[in-house]
Amino acid sequence: MSATSDMEQRTAARPRTVPLTGMRGAIARNMEQGWSVPRVAQSIEADVTALQDLRAAAGEGERSSLTAYVLRAVALCLREHPRLNARLPDREIEVMDDINLGLAVSLGEGLMVPVLRNADRKSTAELAAEARALAEGVRTGTLSPGSYQRGTFTVTSLAGTAIDSFTPILNAPQVAILGVTRVTAKPVARGNAVAVAPMMGLHLVFDHRAVDGYPAALFLGALKHRLETAEGL
């Protein structure tokens, strides 16, 4: 083999590099900050039969996504469990009055998190419309910098994938994030009988400096109850 062809082979074998600058660099810094937090993960499953019935009863043009129902349920549960609607920017916990939900939107080159402000004051239909508009704005690059600021809690979804469980990284300085996974048909006990029900995975990660395991579990249990009963949705 000639020296020239050997050099050509080595040149061709070099990996393509992606510099940690711009959006990818910002994501890397945020992930490193979130990873350094003493975090705990909890998971639960919710039977979404009631939500599917609610969606089926709506008109074709009025049907909201399951994600919109989750956003509404999360916002209402945060009213009752405000310690998870908080930020920890330095050495003190800021329990926030406004419930501003960050919604993770995936792009080819990264992940952006626009914010639905005052989410607890909006209906499921309003949240669905705003979430669609924000996602479109992320993909077209038309959102203002303010659209990504002042979030108090984040929801991220892998429901469109084959993943059943994951532990999302905190969107620091927020103290909690909820991951949502796909709905799958599973056997469940109902009284003394076994039935098959559509089950959604809910995966909470929280900053243990700000929230202990028991109150976090109460929040996750309340979220499961609200999704299963469609109360207030």
TrEMBL record:
Which prosthetic group or cofactor does it need?
Answer: (R)-lipoate
Q: Which UniProt keywords apply?
A: Acyltransferase, Pyruvate, Transferase
The UniProt record lists the keyword Transferase: yes
Q: Which residues form the 2-oxoacid dehydrogenase acyltransferase catalytic domain?
A: 15-231
Superkingdom in the source lineage: Bacteria
**Enzyme class per UniProt:** transferase
What span is annotated as the signal peptide, if there is one? none
**What Enzyme Commission number does this protein have?**
2.3.1.12
Which one of the record's GO molecular function terms can you name? lipoic acid binding
Pfam families to which the protein is assigned, alphabetical: 2-oxoacid_dh
An example of a Gene Ontology cellular component annotation for this protein is: cytoplasm
Report the InterPro entries cross-referenced here: 2-oxoacid_DH_actylTfrase (IPR001078), 2-oxoacid_DH_E2_comp (IPR050743), CAT-like_dom_sf (IPR023213)
Q: What is this protein called?
A: 2-oxo acid dehydrogenase subunit E2
Q: Which organism is it from?
A: Pseudoduganella umbonata
